[in-house]
Amino acid sequence: xxxxxxxxxxTATLADVxxxxxxxxxxxxxxxxxxxTSAQVEGALQGAFGVDTQLLKDGTYFLAxxxxxxxxxxxxxxxxxxFRRTLFGGDARADRDPERLDPRLDAAKIRAFFVHPGWAxxxxxxxxxxxxxxxxLAAGFRRFELMATLPGVRLYQARGYVPGELIHWPLPNxxxxxxxxxxxxxx
Length: 187
Ligand SMILES: CC(C)(COP(=O)(O)OP(=O)(O)OC[C@H]1O[C@@H](n2cnc3c(N)ncnc32)[C@H](O)[C@@H]1OP(=O)(O)O)[C@@H](O)C(=O)NCCC(=O)NCCS
Fold this sequence. Notes:
Blueprint: E1 7-11, H1 17-31, H2 38-44, H3 53-58, E2 61-66, E3 75-82, E4 108-115, H4 124-138, E5 143-148, H5 150-158, E6 162-163, E7 167-170, E8 176-185
Parallel strand pairs: 4-5
Antiparallel strand pairs: 1-2, 2-3, 3-4, 5-8, 6-8, 7-8
The structure holds coenzyme A (COA).
């Protein structure tokens, strides 16, 4: 059982973008090594995985920060939610749709969760997810949905998300990557 490293959550700002980009690259390669090839991860980093600065401007993207006195890296994880239509993807994805959702009809989107490998399985992803769901509930949403990576499925399933049918998402480098749409109804 790993020691409990303390961390806190805060809202990300545009000044955090370089650190978030580095974290996403590191997390995606290290924590999906058993699920995807490194060529798939590289392809996904060209659009499917990445920072969507719209969320930072909206104030709906959060960072988990470790306390400096612990040995673990300070930036422990990132993740957000959105009241806009885009389901996944960073700034490099040209077809993002910023249309605002209707909380009475639509599901809030859970977006871009990446945890530092030095912080894996310490509750960072679950804490970020809880923060996002609470914020979406406060905005009036009653359903949540996301496009999960294969590593992500394990976190979301443990938190009550129901998987849909696996898709093979085409990547810019000619490969495809397996994703699973997931959704959850608020209690
Ligand atoms: C998916 C990811 C965000 C999970 O983050 P995490 O901080 O390690 O997850 P948590 O410690 O909060 O896990 C909460 C629960 O989810 C489940 N879970 C998470 N990771 C798991 C794993 N690798 N194997 C089995 N169960 C897992 C467990 O039930 C866990 O509770 P437990 O540790 O008490 O058993 C992380 O693995 C990651 O960043 N992966 C690479 C990037 C990625 O694919 N992101 C998802 C985008 S959709």
